[in-house]
């Protein structure tokens, strides 16, 4: 078994799974043009890699290298998607409402360009301020650090909304989505 065939088997499956992982994440985020284009490339690479392995099943190393390319491809696909940080996150920050901090977190966040909806709720230890913040996913760590720098006791939860409608972010979201679809 030649090293070049093993290397080709690894890199073909690596490329296939990396593209497949990214395509799946794009599909879940609603990229209706880019995801199908990537799927065409993905299936072409898949057939190439599978035929390489199926034509050489006499050597178990071929199957191992194919599986190794698969595993590494998933890891790299996830890393690429994390770096792209496509989409938006919705962050809920729950704060003690009787804070001694001089800074007003909703004002700080709004001054940084975040949309903030403020409400109040009741927690185990009393009244809490609840902030709902919509942000591009690429700003998630920055937002988290900003909240913690103003109120270190904040309880923070983030999730990815599938649909966004209304509010001051709607125009920004539609503009970005129309740019990506063109």
Automatic annotation (TrEMBL):
Location of this chain's protein in the cell: Cell membrane
CDD domains (alphabetical): YitT_C_like_1
HAMAP family: UPF0316
PANTHER family: UPF0316 PROTEIN YEBE
Residue ranges occupied by any DUF2179 domain in the UniProt entry: 114-166
Protein family (similarity comment): Belongs to the UPF0316 family.
First-listed, main subcellular location of the protein, grouped into a coarse class: membrane
TM annotation in the entry: 6-26, 33-54, 60-80
Keywords: Cell membrane, Membrane, Transmembrane, Transmembrane helix
Protein name in the entry: UPF0316 protein ACFSR0_03380
């Amino acid at each position: 078994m030649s090293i070049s065939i093993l290397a080709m088997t690894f890199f073909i499956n690596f490329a296939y799974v990396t593209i497949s992982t990214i395509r799946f994440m794009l599909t879940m985020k609603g990229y209706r043009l880019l995801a199908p284009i990537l799927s065409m490339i993905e299936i072409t690479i898949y057939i190439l890699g599978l035929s390489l392995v199926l034509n050489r099943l006499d050597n178990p190393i071929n199957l191992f290298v194919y599986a190794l390319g698969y595993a590494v491809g998933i890891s790299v696909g996830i890393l690429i998607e994390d770096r792209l940080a496509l989409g938006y996150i919705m962050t809920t920050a729950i704060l003690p409402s009787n804070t001694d901090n001089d800074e007003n977190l909703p004002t700080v966040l709004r001054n940084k360009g975040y949309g903030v909806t403020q409400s109040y709720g009741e927690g185990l230890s009393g009244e809490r301020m609840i902030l709902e913040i919509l942000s591009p996913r690429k700003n998630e760590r920055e937002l988290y650090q900003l909240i913690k720098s103003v109120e270190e006791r904040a309880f923070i939860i983030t999730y990815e909304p599938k649909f966004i409608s209304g509010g001051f972010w709607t125009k920004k979201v539609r503009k970005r989505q129309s740019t990506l679809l063109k």
